[in-house]
Description:
Blueprint: H1 3-27, H2 34-43, E1 48-49, H3 50-57, H4 61-73, E2 77-81, E3 89-93, H5 95-115, H6 121-138
Antiparallel strand pairs: 1-3, 2-3
Helix pairs in contact: 1-5, 3-4
Amino acid sequence: MNRFITTELIGKTSRLITNNLSQKILLAKIDITTEQWILLQILSKSSKTQKELGNITVKNKASINSLISYLLKQEYINKSISQKDKRETIIQITELGEDIRKMVLKEASEAINETMKGFSNSEIELLNSMLKRINNNLIK
């Protein structure tokens, strides 16, 4: 098996999934990008530091700052100084951000269903397991 083909397919699949969700968000006339929505999705579970968001999304500081700036401007998130460490900034989702997140969740669910059409639960579990192994191989 050619391992280059595998990495090409993973990259192409990632772009196709992102493009599919982006198109659905655009058609729904929701003013947010897929990357911005992903941050809201992460923050809906619990507040995070900017550094944690960068680590979770595998984005550099400049990219995270840009995403956060837009979300702050739209009032989808709040930013505050950590009580534990004054050098850290804590990011949390606002009610407006939660509303937008939920609006996009419908589109995301549809995109995921299209992506995973025809896969059994055991196939999805196997795929998830393999992708986690690939991620672990690359996380340093």
